Amino acid sequence: MAMWNPWRGCKRYSEGCKYCYIHKGDFKRKINTNDIVKTEDFYKPIEKLKKGSYKIKSGLVYLCFSSDFLIEEADLWRDECWEMIKERSDLTFLFLTKRIDRFLDCIPNDWNDGYDNVIVCCTVENQENADYKLSVFKELPIKHKCITAQPLLEKINIEKYLDDIELVVVGGESDYNARALDYDWVLDIREQCIRKNVNFEFRQCGTHFIKDGKKYTLQVHQLTKQARLADINYCK
Ligand code: SF4
């Protein structure tokens, strides 16, 4: 698994951005997250070793995890990224976006019904933005689609949007002031996935976590561990 961040910086765009880890990290380092800038890793996928082979070997590449791949400020840079993604057809590129409604303005001319080596994860947090974003997502020409419901802020029903979805990931919010995650909401989405035979993963608990009506406060290092211990992932 490799990471490729061609640019950094982002602007809050939806409810789930409130405690964005990028904004929090930048605040500590006194960096203005609202400045979207290219990074020195811009050409990382096509960088080569002296002997001529690519530095990144085959496998999964997490794309744009210090920004949003579809952010407007990167519109002039994205075409070059698509060229690199095409050149590296031996790699699979995965990006998450809160801006799925910009997707059709961001794809290259030869996208057609999608590149085989691109996985797009549409992120949702509440019923209102799930209904809006997933009805857009449903119609888009993308070969590999996933949904990330993280941070999940309320009980949501996404069952009618699960056709053609390869994986649903659910998780809570991580912050001292985080909004609580209710385990019942997680189990409810899991049931929806099972009914539609879609893979499901409980990725992380929330800092504030409710189970059987009781509220718990967890440390950062416990968030993914406790989710794993719940052992509720579903693989079809
Ligand atoms: S879209 Fe993602 S990276 Fe950008 S502010 Fe929101 S949570 Fe942070």
What key phrases describe this protein's structure?
single chain; 236 residues; alpha/beta; seven-stranded parallel β-sheet; three-stranded mixed β-sheet; 6 helices; 12 strands; 23% strand; globular; binds iron/sulfur cluster
Q: For the terminal residues, how far apart are their CA atoms?
A: 23 Å
The H-and-E topology, N to C, reads as EEHEEHEHEHEEEHEEEH
Arrangement of strands in the largest sheet: 1-4-5-6-7-8-10
Helicity, in percent?
A: 25-40%
Figure out the total of helices: 6
Could you tell me the radius of gyration in angstroms? 18 Å
Structure ligands: iron/sulfur cluster
Task: Give the overall pLDDT as a whole number.
Answer: 97
Structural class: alpha/beta
Low-confidence parts lasting 5 or more residues at pLDDT below 50? Answer: none
Backbone shape: globular
Strand content: 15-25%
Overview of this protein structure:
- The chain has 236 residues and is of the alpha/beta class.
- It has a domain at 1-108.
- Helix content is 26%, strand content 23%.
- It contains six helices and twelve strands.
- It has helices at 21-28, 75-87, 103-106, 127-138, 183-196, 220-230, and strands at residues 2-4, 7-8, 37-38, 59-63, 91-97, 118-124, 144-149, 165-171, 181-182, 199-204, 208-211, 214-217.
- A seven-stranded parallel sheet has the order 1-4-5-6-7-8-10.
- The relative contact order is 0.11.
- The mean pLDDT is 97.
- The protein binds iron/sulfur cluster.
